[in-house]
Every structure is written in C-alpha cells, then in structure tokens.
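Is this the right way to post structure tokens for a design question? Let me know if I should format differently. Anyway, here goes:
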C-alpha cells in the first residue's frame, strides 16, 4: 500500500441557475449567501477546496453562461458573457436543498458588488465543480495556511475532519473582528493573524508563522492566498524544509496587480 497517496476525481460539469434564500453577514468582511432551488438537485462537492464557477449578471442584466464544448467553455454568439469568479462551496445540505457560499467583501468588482446588494429572491448562476483533489487521509498532521479568501475552504476542512485528526490552521484576516467560529471534531490548533491595516499583498504574517511551524510526523501542507505569497511559501517548504512536492498543495486564490512573477 502506498503511503500518502492523494488523487483527483472528475465530475460532470453542470450549469445551474439558483435563487438566493438567505443572506448573513458573518463578519465585517465576509457575507454568506445561501442559494437553492430545483436546479441544485444532483449537486456534489467531494473536497473542502473544491471550487465552482459563479456567474453574475452581464451589463445587460442577463446571465449568459457557457456550455462545455470540445475546446473548453463556449458562449452563445452575439451575447456578452457574464462575469465569472471561482468560489468554494462552503456548506451543502442536500436534504434541505441549500448551498452556502461565503463572499469576501472588498473592492467594487462584479462579485463583491453583487454580494453587497443580494437579497432573498435574487438569482445566481454557477457551474461545477469540475473536479476534486482528494488529499490522502493517512498523514500524521495537516497544516492549513491562508488569508480570508481561503477561510471558506479552511472552515470546511475543519468541519469535515474526523475526531482526533491533528490539524494546525493559520488564518490571516483584515482585523480581529473577522475571526469566525469554526466548529470541528479534529484536534485543532487554530491561529488568527489580523493584519490591522496592512495590505494583504504586503503582509508577511503567514510567512513568519510558517517559519516556526514544526508539525510532528508526516505533514500535508495546504496553502491558499495571494499568488506570489503562496508560491514563495511552497518554495520555502520544498527548498528549506525538503517537503516532498506531493505533500504540498499551494494555490494562488487571487493575484495582486503589482505581483511580479519570479523565475522557478
């Protein structure tokens, strides 16, 4: 039997139009939108860091979503495509027919603007998830590192972990008021790092904690934050800690406009 064997699952891509059922402000910078409707039937999300493509109304107020063609996503001719962003399916209740998606409230882009104005009865379109990355369950320790954009995935990780599983979660947030209750049965060490005014692309709070982390045994490292920061933390683990590449999942959840790509 191979130790620490993670694998990927593929899912049929289905595009759905759903209705907003509830809106909850979790913290000053996080709003939860709960959607549902008959089209949610059959929805499946297998891994905590799955993502769905969420579509917002185009300038004409229409939802113009693609179909999956031979060359990828294809949009109807003559129509302006709906703006699209990736989001984590935070809480799915198949029995109740609901899906919760948490939106970070910052800026004035299409996602934040839609979420700020969303009310029950509004429409939301989404597609996917297209696949899931299933992390091996035989690691001795799991380390979850991310900023507020990763908080929905980290919260879902913690909520789905079995009793007694050792996990360290390091979460960078805009301010102390952005802490959330994250129920878990795991043996969890949850650390909150408020930036208190420091721009997220300039913060080094996650990196400073990463330098001091020393989980016992074989550890799986999950990292999600600004693209350059996530990449540099992965390089630190590979280069300075000699962590095998297969034991790290590092993803840029967003990219700052001034981020400069470094050379591998």
């Amino acid at each position: 039997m191979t130790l620490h064997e993670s694998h990927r699952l593929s899912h049929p891509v289905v595009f759905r139009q759903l209705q907003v059922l509830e809106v909850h402000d979790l913290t000053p910078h996080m709003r939860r939108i709960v959607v549902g409707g008959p089209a949610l039937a059959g929805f499946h999300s297998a891994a905590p860091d799955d993502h769905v493509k969420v579509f917002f109304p185009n300038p004409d107020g229409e939802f113009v979503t693609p179909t999956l063609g031979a060359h990828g996503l294809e949009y109807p001719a003559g129509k302006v495509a709906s703006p699209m962003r990736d989001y984590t399916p935070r809480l799915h209740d198949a029995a109740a027919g609901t899906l919760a998606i948490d939106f970070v409230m910052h800026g004035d882009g299409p996602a934040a603007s839609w979420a700020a104005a969303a009310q029950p009865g509004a429409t939301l379109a989404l597609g996917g998830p297209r696949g899931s990355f299933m992390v091996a369950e035989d690691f001795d320790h799991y380390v979850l590192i991310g900023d507020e954009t990763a908080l929905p995935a980290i919260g879902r990780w913690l909520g789905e972990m079995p009793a007694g599983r050792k996990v360290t979660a390091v979460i960078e947030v805009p301010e102390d008021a952005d802490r959330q209750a994250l129920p878990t049965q795991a043996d969890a060490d949850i650390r909150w790092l408020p930036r208190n005014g420091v721009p997220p692309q300039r913060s080094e709070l996650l990196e400073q904690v990463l330098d001091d982390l020393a989980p016992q045994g074989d550890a799986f490292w999950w990292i999600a934050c600004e693209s350059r920061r996530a990449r540099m933390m992965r390089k630190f683990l590979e280069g300075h800690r000699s962590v095998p590449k297969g034991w790290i999942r590092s993803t840029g959840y967003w990219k700052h406009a001034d981020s400069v790509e470094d050379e591998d």
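Format looks fine. Someone answered above. Worth noting: The mean pLDDT is 94. Helices lie at 110-117, 151-160, 205-212, 227-240.
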